[in-house]
Design a protein that fits this description.
By secondary structure, the protein is an alpha+beta fold. It contains four helices and three strands; from the N terminus they run E-E-H-E-H-H-H. It has one domain: GIY-YIG endonuclease (3-Layer(aba) Sandwich).
Length: 102
């Protein structure tokens, strides 16, 4: 049987930016991102897995990853995850500290 590959999107809770990648072991890869073992995201932790798709081969996963990184792909994700992003934005607003002058 062929190996399954996953195209995934992570949300940095630190800066609110997205990271898109692919892997054949999603759980392990997300753990590596959050443990700081991935150079491109080690300063952006914690990261939350917010979306993934499965592909039946590596070639299709690579093509899909590249597509999701384009302007069209970012628009697709924004539309697909619209409610999630609204909830995330609201939770960030609630967590901002309130400063009082004394």
């Amino acid at each position: 049987m062929n190996e399954i590959y996953y195209v995934y999107v992570l949300l940095s809770e630190k800066d609110g930016d997205l990271y898109t990648g692919y892997t054949n072991d999603l759980k392990d890869r997300v753990n590596k991102h959050n443990n700081g073992d991935v150079q491109s995201t080690k300063h952006r932790t914690p990261l939350t897995l917010i979306y993934y798709e499965s592909c039946l081969n590596q070639t299709d996963a690579i093509k899909r990853e590249k597509k999701l990184k384009t302007t069209w792909g970012k628009r697709y994700l924004k539309s697909r995850l619209e409610n999630y992003f609204k909830e995330f934005a609201e939770s960030r607003r609630r967590l901002k500290p309130i400063y009082h002058s004394f």
